[in-house]
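Example A, followed by Example B.
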Amino acid sequence: MKKKFTMGVGKYYFNVNSGNSAILIHREKKREAIIQYLNYKKIGKDCEWLGLWNGKSFDESSTPTAAKL
């Protein structure tokens, strides 16, 4: 599937799977991204942490936990 946008370098990304589609969410700061990711997980959503986009691939792609805040 072709994306119709460019991903911002230095932003943190994660997917929230909703039925047949995945919603891509980004945040500027790591702490905010982890908090939002954990909130989605807490309410039972199927989420996938992608990490920090460096322009070519994702860095910091290990799944965050509350201890990493």
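Example B, a separate protein, is given below in the same form.
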Amino acid sequence: MTRLIRPLVVILIFFAALAGLATLLGPIEPLRDVPVVGEKWTHWRAHKDEFDTLFIGTSRTFRGVMPSIFDQLTAGAGVPTRSYNFGVDAMFPPEDAYVAEALLRDPPRNLRWVFIEQGLFISGFEGRPPTSVRTIYWHDWTRTRLCLRETLWPKKRGVKWSKWFEPDDEKPSPASNALTHLHVFLLKALNIGRGSSAWSRVVFNTPSNAGFLGLAADGFEPSSGDGVMRGHELERYEREYAERVKTPTRVVPLRPYSLESFERQLRFARKAGARTIFIVAPTTGELSGHPAPELGVPTFDFRDLVKFPELFAKEHRTDIAHMNAKGAELYTRRLAEKFIELAKTQPPTTR
């Protein structure tokens, strides 16, 4: 028995030490060498004190919210803002919370508002290489532990341990997925892969891609292509649009782990002296997750086809989840409209 316990204790000490090391090293330039994220982070670090409003979210924010239009409208309404779009393609929970904490750990001097877009909590690796820099960088112990719990105890309910080893619809088993998360955490803790982008820039003189900052250097970049839906994409959109006309999007509570991830972002935003607004972007999804009412977070939900018909006109969209350039302008105007109404009722923020 002693022979078994001793190696187990050593393994536990090893992983505890790694968790502590990752916690200590995580805040040190955590985003700089990550593709896309790094370009936005570098610009943010150099100019953050110029901004008082921050948008965080997926491609629906990155490609849909135009700070130049938003700031123009808020200034005209007497509640001026200077905003920055830190939306990133496919930046779902819990990755978005890691980024938000990095941004808010050392916030702008005059930060007042933080907009956080709803995203679906993703703990699997389908379509996301586990050993890519984009996957490794956010796997600190907080996020890894959250993914392990979501994988092994979905919905925060007990599960028979035997089910952890059963694949589901050709996907890896929960146990396999959990081991992959631990492997990625190990890579993160050992700082493996973090320097690959920096090394590429030094050795091959690879320039930073300023395109991710947009023409106005405010983080907004429109969807690629001509912004017109065709063929299968158009058929899919029309089919889902018809479904939403028949059965409107239903408001539901955020899923447990999505809520837990969001609550961490909320705590960091409040500690930074900012107010948080939760955004549900205009998509044809059948469910719309909202944070718990007791959190006291205003929610701007744009999934109502009747209230926001122009946001669902097919000529303003590229697919079921994204707007084209014209749609982004219309979406931003609606977002500013709701924000102005809210901001005029709020007392000044204090740090």
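On Example B: The longest strand covers residues 275-280.
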